[in-house]
Amino acid sequence: MDLPKLPPLNLEQIVNFYTPKSWGISDPARFAALMEEARQLVTPGSYLGDNLFTWGRNNSLFEDTEFRNAWQQNIQNDADQAIAWRRYILACAAFHCVQLEGDFVECGVYTGTGIKTVMDYLGGPSFPKTFWGYDTYDYNPVEGHRFAGQQEGFFETVQQRFANYPQTRLIKGFLPDSFAQGAPERVAYLHIDLNNAPGELAALEVLFDRVVPGGIIVLDDYEWAGVYRSQKKAEDPWFEARGYRVFPLPTGQGLIIKR
Questions:
Q1: C-alpha angle with apex 69: 28 to 11, nearest 5 degrees?
Q2: pLDDT profile of the chain (259 residues), mean per 10
Q3: CA dist., res. 9 & res. 208, Å (int)
């Protein structure tokens, strides 16, 4: 396939990004005012959103034209906009993994925006891999994590987004039982975003050994504290028992490269 090319770099161009969407803020109005003041005090190249504030950065995701187009075309809510950097981590991992043997897998699909952004970045309807998406879709099995739209008929709505993407396999059901409906023998790319430790470990028990050498695993919640800290607590010893250490990313994700 023809991989997306980076445009020539304009050394004079500096990209700033701001979105008001973050989580865990007790006084949003005061926080917004203080962060606006902080943004005026730092050098250009700032990113503020998704609980992440950086400055003096290239913000490469916005200079990658193919990614920026794929991301913008798939924004469906405020969170999709805010987690742009997280989505670029997925896109860069996919850029690497699409050149390996094996299928793509996402566990925890919600509206399908993560899958579709990656596919659109790497060919859209011509994406050269089978992409498996596992989720309960119409309901959320994790207490306190029901998302907008998760009701009867939601699965069909997500399916419709991929009507022109025949290489997508959306599997509805509770993991790991739903793997019985179909699962790849070899995996190049694995994105896990199940919001709970038992579900993520269950997915890893089935899929980890199927990830090919050089394949990449991204754990969406790994480096988030609070209610997600239990995932790190469970996943650290699981990976350490296999001789792996998770790369903690400032986006809140964790990354593993299979050897």
A1: 85
A2: 93 94 96 96 97 97 97 95 98 98 97 97 97 88 68 91 97 94 98 95 98 98 95 98 98 98
A3: 37
pLDDT of 203 reads 97
Coil, strand or helix at 222: coil
What token pair was written down for 140?
A: 């959320």
| 176 upstream amide cis, omega within 30 of 0 | yes
| HSE toward the beta carbon, residue 58, CA cutoff 13 A | 7
pLDDT of res. 152 = 85
CA torsion, ordered 4, 10, 14, 20, to nearest 10 deg: -20
pLDDT score recorded for residue 145: 66
Rounded to whole angstroms, the Cα distance separating 252 from 221 reads 6
The full set of domains in the chain, from first to last, is 78-257 (3.40.50.150)
Whole-number CA gyration radius for the chain: 18
User: Which residue bears the tokens 């700032």?
Assistant: 46
Q: Which two tokens stand for residue 23?
A: 């989580």
Q: For the residues of 157-208, what is the DSSP string, one character each?
A: HHHHHTTT-TTEEEEES-TTGGGGG---SSEEEEEE--SSHHHHHHHHHHHG
